[in-house]
Amino acid sequence: MIIDAILTPAEIDVLPQADLSASVCVVFDVLRATSSIITGLAHGAEEIRPVVSIEEALSARAQWPDAVLGGERFGDRIDGFDLGNSPLEYCRAGLRRIVTTTTNGTVTLQACASAREVWVGALLNMQALVDRLRQSGPERVLLVCAGTFRELALEDVLAAGMLAAAFPEATLTDAAQVALALYRQHQANLCAALELAKNGRVLRAHGRAEDVAWCAQVSRFPIVGVLRDGVIRRG
Ligand code: MLT
């Protein structure tokens, strides 16, 4: 198994032109998009459609009139949407279908659409990711760190490194080695690492410390979200 990593949004921009046909992409946007998606699936959401723009979300609801609209711009709920992007908003039953758009997370998921498989990764479902990778043993794994706006996000690289750490027998590219080294530096206190990250500091400064603590939980939910034909379902 070869494990590679995409660490920055600039690299994500060109993913739609890359040959991902042999790769399983695991997308991390720990604060907070992929954490919210995993939380929603864990509480009964059956189908989650990640879209790039607000307009796309509104038109997707035309196809799914029973769907709730979720997501954020600049961290806040979008006017007219039902939910923001706090994972705590997805801890409720009854959210059967969700359409979501976020700054980086949903864009990154879409950018990986041509991959052999696209999985939703977070700290919340880490053991489920490890188990599924061990079971399926793909030739190539691409750990895709969504970042924030145009910047690398420490928490995403940390989570990618945690997944890589579970496969000491794998061949890691330099980018994956960087992620592994970052994880090893912070593995003793992942919550502190998320609070150190820019996203963690910004969320806490905006009264969202609970979101950071929630997203820092490791292997809380034994599920993998799989994106197929534009829709995320429990894998
Ligand atoms: C993102 O998708 O960039 C983040 O999840 C944004 C957020 O949740 O504030």
Task: Describe this structure as you would to a colleague.
This protein is α/β, with parallel strands linked by helices. It has one domain: Alpha-Beta Complex (putative 2-phosphosulfolactate phosphatase), CATH 3.90.1560. Helix content is 38%, strand content 21%. It is built from ten helices and eleven strands. The protein has a seven-stranded mixed sheet, with helices on both faces. Helix 6 packs across helix 7 (174-186) and helix 9 runs antiparallel to helix 10 (209-215). The radius of gyration is 16 Å and the shape is globular. The relative contact order is 0.24. The mean pLDDT is 97. D-malate (MLT) is lined by residues 29, 32-33, 72, 75, 85, 102-105, 148. D-malate binds at residues 29, 32-33, 72, 75, 85, 102-105, 148.
